[in-house]
Specification:
Keywords: Coiled coil, Membrane, Transmembrane, Transmembrane helix. This protein is mostly helical. It is built from 20 helices and 9 strands.
């Protein structure tokens, strides 16, 4: 058959068929006759025509649709966002804003308390350390003072013993030498050995023996000193000559070079405004004191500020104005009363005056002699008309805050100018510093490059400079002194030793006096400050956002309620597919399509992007879950299960809080301990070195005294053990009688006067005393050994000065951990609960509404017979002249029956209405009926699928609710 589309244009038309039944062709049950005018059930009362008609009231399908509509509306409101939010809130507990704020506010207060307590503890213990150091320093000073005085007394005693013994030894030796020089033999005891006799004779036989030994040492020392002095003198002469010659050669060159440098030097001028950040607090204090700024913005620490004084004056002035106003009102009231009384008196006088004139007239009295008073007009007696003010009112005085608002911009401008000046001064100073540095870099080296003076050369190769020579000479001198003290122990007494008593000062110390010596090592931590935001109100406003979304959902559902009532009133809500009998519709059987066309069909199908979106949604949900799961598990383990490590939030909150609470105490600890150690070291360096030097010097002196005493005592003991002092004393008496120190001569004495040993070392010369007076000296019998002859420890013991061991230990860690854990866990609980409620509510909202939509759609399809009015719509293709044509898939067999063939049977089509008449109408009716027989079962099967999908959509949110129903409430 030829294709009529090639001969005429084709258009699609929608034709609504009525009075068609797939059975006998009668009108469906309950189907009204819509081609007849159907009045409203309320008649003329229904002006708006909004009530159902009488025929509609008899329509069972309408009742069924309304039932389905109310069911749909009911479950629509049951799946609102508010219901989902309440259900999520029931399963996921949320902390109140007050509990979170209380927990974190308590944490903030505890941190500040710990900060203050730790700082107070450090200051107290540092103060105690300072007190202990002062006490220990005083005790140690007292100890070494006592030891020093005891050592002074010991040295004096040792010196007295040594002087006595050495004097006795030297005098006894000289007296024996003088006796032996006269050729008289010494009386030896029998117990004296020959060696001892030889030793005594060698000692007393040559008086120059000891002198020669001392002379040898003195000569060596003199030669050494003379050589050193000669070398130093020669060096100074050579150096002076060289320097004079060199300076003469170089002076003019250096002068010229320096003058040239001075002429080229340039320093930028400096004109800096003195402006530093330290001025701002003083200026702020000055403004607070002398201006009318509100004390809330700054206080005056040392006087009542101008704001307070002016406020008091204004209060007093206001009180005075109020009193004056009351007095003025009272005066006005009294003036008005007085005016009224005066007017009344005037009226009485006027009445009296008129009556008097009338009386005079009636009596015909002569008034010529009465005077001017009678002729005085009545107006002269009228009181002055004064308008007294009702009340005195004062304008409101301007407030102090209002005055300050007018002048505050000037202060702000000054701060801005000072800040600008400070920045400008800093930049100018840095530029000046850079310029000065550049000029200093140009400064020539003042030392000439060829300056090479001769170097000092000592007698020893190890001595390369004058300092080393000085040290070497000092060591030689000390050695000479020690050896001379022993060699000349018989001839000289030790020089007098005296030193001022050592009185160390009383030590008082306060670490705050040494703040400039403290280390600058400090952890800077900005002070925590409370926010000006009212977080409770902020959370309330934040909650209002969710309320707004819920209200928007309510509005949407109210709109949907009206819309559903409208659509269910008719059959629009059923969405029964149209009967498609067009001849050019796209084939839908996949088995009849080619691969490219099938691919294009699949891609263009609306389910394809929906499926892709579903895949990406699942993917995104999995990614979000993988991101959120570690945080959630950390909260469960750290907060709910009491994990030792806590959570990231609690641990870092504790770290921040602990560092902040420790900052002031640590700073005070570093500064205090540093200052304490500096003071302790200063005490040791100030008194320790001096006491060590003094102790060593005293020990050297005492050792020298002991050695000298031992030498003298040993020699004197040798004399007393070998010489018969009684015989020798008698011989001295016989030889020296009558002279100084001896009694007068008796019979037989004085014959050997020429042999009397004379002491030639004194003036006037006199005989030596009897040997027993020297040889039996008591001081030589004493042994300078034992503890009583040992020096006490007068060294300043630095170890006795205590170290400062602070035991504060920082803020209370356990208390802060509990507090920060409570705050952090409350915050995390709130965050997790809000997130979980949001996720659960949105998932429930989405899935429940999808399930609701699919359920209503499915039930409408399953029970379409009870809801549909029996009217269907078909789509057909027609030619330009209105002739309807159908596809070749509909054909009429030999029994005059319409048969539907397989889809996609080709592009051929034919006119089913060409024959005309009722027979053709019946054939087309059969075409539509066959199409409905295929569409409606498929439509109903789709309803069962949608009901199943509705059930399936409830599984995910039930599963989610079951898994997140774990109790995340933090109990503290």
């Amino acid at each position: 058959m030829a294709n009529p589309l090639n001969q005429a244009s084709t258009s699609n038309i929608d034709v609504e068929l009525t009075s068609m039944d797939r059975g006998q062709g009668d009108k469906p049950s309950g189907t009204p006759d819509f081609h007849v005018q159907d009045p409203s059930c309320l008649g003329s009362v229904d002006v708006c025509k909004c009530c159902p008609s009488k025929a509609q009231l008899k329509d069972d399908a309408l009742y069924n649709r309304m039932t389905m509509c109310f069911f749909a509306i009911t479950i629509m409101w049951c799946t609102s966002l508010k219901v989902c939010a309440e259900l999520a809130n029931a399963y996921v507990p949320t902390p109140s804003v007050n509990s979170v704020m209380t927990s974190c506010t308590d944490t903030y207060d505890i941190i500040n308390e710990e900060r203050e307590e730790y700082l107070q503890c450090v200051e107290i213990q540092l103060g105690q350390c300072n007190v202990n150091l002062a006490i220990a320093a005083d005790d140690e000073a007292d100890r070494i003072d006592v030891a020093y005085n005891a050592n002074r007394q010991l040295l004096e005693d040792a010196k007295a013993v040594q002087n006595g013994c050495s004097g006795a030894y030297s005098n006894g030796r000289f007296s024996l030498e003088s006796w032996a020089a006269n050729g008289v033999a010494l009386p030896y005891l029998s117990a004296c050995t020959e060696d001892d006799k030889t030793t005594i004779e060698e000692a007393v036989g040559d008086i120059s023996a000891v002198r020669s030994e001392a002379f040898t040492l003195s000569s060596e020392y003199s030669q050494e000193s003379q050589g050193t002095v000669d070398r130093l003198a020669d060096y100074m002469v050579l150096r002076a000559a060289y320097d004079a010659q060199y300076a003469d050669n170089r002076t003019q060159h250096m002068q010229d070079k320096f003058e040239n440098w001075v002429e080229n030097i340039y320093l930028p001028s400096i004109d800096l405004n003195t402006t530093f950040e330290e001025l701002f607090p003083d200026i702020d204090t000055l403004v607070s004191c002398v201006s009318v700024r509100d004390p809330a913005n700054g206080t005056c620490p040392f006087m009542e500020n101008a704001y307070k004084l002016i406020d008091d004056s204004m209060a007093e002035l206001t009180s005075m104005v109020d009193v004056a106003s009351e007095n003025a009102k009272e005066l006005a009231d009294k003036a008005a009363q007085y005016k009224e009384n005066a007017a009344e008196a005037y009226r009485n006088s006027e009445e009296f005056f008129n009556g008097l004139q009338e009386t005079v007239g009636r009596l015909s009295l002569n008034t010529d002699n009465w005077g001017d008073w009678y002729d005085m007009p009545l107006s002269d007696m009228y009181p002055v008309d004064i308008n007294f003010p009702d009340a005195i009112e004062f304008e409101d005085l301007p407030s102090i805050d209002g005055i300050w608002e007018k002048v505050a911009p000037a202060l702000e401008s000054m701060y801005v100018n000072m800040t600008d000046a400070q920045i400008a001064a800093y930049k100018m100073g840095m530029q000046w510093k850079q310029d000065v540095q550049e000029q200093l870099d140009k400064l020539p080296d003042p030392l000439p490059e060829d300056y090479n003076p001769p170097q000092y050369e000592g007698a020893d190769e190890s001595v390369t400079n004058v300092t080393a020579e000085k040290k070497r000479h000092q060591e030689k001198s000390n050695k000479f002194r020690d050896q001379t003290a022993v060699a000349l122990d018989a001839f000289a007494e030790l020089s007098q030793y005296s030193e001022d008593n050592f009185n160390p000062p009383s030590i008082t110390f306060n670490f705050t006096e040494y703040a400039d010596k403290a280390s600058n090592f400090e952890f800077s931590f900005e002070k925590l400050r409370g926010s000006v935001i009212d977080f409770e109100l902020w959370f309330v406003q934040f909650g209002s956002l969710s309320d707004m979304i819920i209200y928007a959902d309510f509005v949407f559902r109210a709109y949907q309620t009206i819309r559903m009532l409208y659509y269910y009133w008719g059959r629009g809500a059923l969405n029964v597919p149209d009967i498609d009998v067009t001849c050019d519709k796209e084939p839908t059987n996949p088995f009849r399509l080619s691969t490219p066309r099938l691919t294009a069909l699949i891609i263009s199908n609306p389910m394809t992007p929906a499926f892709i979106g579903f895949i990406f949604t699942i993917w995104a949900a999995a990614l979000l879950s993988s991101i959120y799961e570690p945080l959630y598990q950390e909260y469960i383990i750290g907060c709910l299960q009491g994990g030792e490590n806590g959570t990231f939030v609690t641990e870092n909150l504790f770290s921040i809080g602990y560092n902040y609470a420790s900052q002031d105490g640590n700073s005070a600890t570093f500064a205090g301990l540093d200052a304490y150690d500096v003071q302790r070291a200063e005490l040791c360096s100030q008194y320790g070195a001096n006491s060590v030097n003094r102790q060593n010097e005293d020990a050297g002196i005492l050792a020298s005294l002991k050695e000298s005493h031992s030498t003298a005592a040993t020699g004197l003991n040798l004399y007393t053990s070998c010489i018969d002092t009684s015989i020798l004393d008698g011989e001295f008496q016989d030889s020296c009688c009558g002279q100084t120190g001896y009694r007068t001569c008796t019979g037989g004495e004085g014959e050997g006067v020429y042999n009397c040993p004379i002491n030639e070392l004194v003036e006037p010369q006199k005989p030596w005393s009897k040997p027993s007076e020297y040889l039996l000296e008591e001081s030589c019998q004493m042994a300078m050994v034992g503890d009583e002859w040992e020096l006490q420890d007068s060294v300043y013991n630095c170890d006795y000065l205590p170290t400062c061991d602070l035991t504060c230990g920082g803020p209370a860690r356990l208390r802060m951990e509990r507090s920060t854990d409570s705050c952090g866990c409350h915050l995390e609980w709130g965050g997790h609960s809000i997130w979980l409620q949001l996720v659960v509510a949105m998932v429930m909202y989405t899935l429940l509404n999808l399930a609701r939509i699919k359920l209503i759609q499915g039930l409408s399809k399953i029970f379409w017979k009870y809801l549909h009015p029996g009217l269907f719509t078909f789509k057909a293709t027609c030619l330009r002249d209105g002739e309807i044509v159908v596809s070749e898939e509909f054909t009429v067999n030999e029994n005059d029956e319409v048969v539907k063939v397989e889809e996609g049977g080709g592009d051929e089509h034919h006119s089913i209405l060409r024959e005309g008449g009722s027979k053709t109408d019946k054939k087309f009716k059969k075409v539509l009926e066959k199409e409905l027989d295929w569409i409606l079962p498929k439509y109903r099967r789709k309803g069962f699928l949608q009901v199943f999908m509705a059930i399936f959509f409830n599984v995910p949110w039930i599963f989610l609710l079951k898994n997140v129903s774990y109790n995340i409430k933090y109990e503290g």
